[in-house]
Amino acid sequence: MLTLRLYMLQRITALLMAPLVLGHLAMMIYAVQGGLSAAEILGRTQGSILWFLFYGIFVMSAAIHGAIGLRTIAHEWGGVKGVALDLVMWVIGLGLFALGARAVWAVSFA
């Protein structure tokens, strides 16, 4: 049952990330074609709750999605099982979230 829940959670996070990736790419293309500098981009994103939520949801979804995927790889290729398998998933997921959250904070509020 846990495997089915993780499978469904990974698919849900993929559905969340798809439009976020497209939005992120569109903004990058807009910024590059507009000739915006890093300072100008940060000037537009800092203090914006909208950008904080956009990238916060993106990071949370990516951390969950990636941790579940790497859990599957650790099980299928590495033969990791049981508590160790769950520990791998949690450590990777929390690590990805911490790194992403730090970046979101820097772009939004630092």
TrEMBL record:
Entry-linked SUPFAM superfamilies: Fumarate reductase respiratory complex transmembrane subunits
Domain of life: Bacteria
Cofactor section: heme
Alphabetical list of Pfam families matching this protein: Sdh_cyt
Record key words, sorted: Heme, Iron, Membrane, Metal-binding, Transmembrane, Transmembrane helix
Recorded GO CC terms: membrane
Localisation: Membrane
Transmembrane stretches, start-end: 12-32, 52-70, 82-105
InterPro entries, alphabetized: SQR/QFR_C/D, SuccDH_FuR_B_TM-su
Purpose of the protein: Membrane-anchoring subunit of succinate dehydrogenase (SDH).
Protein known as: Succinate dehydrogenase/Fumarate reductase transmembrane subunit
Protein species of origin: Roseovarius aestuarii
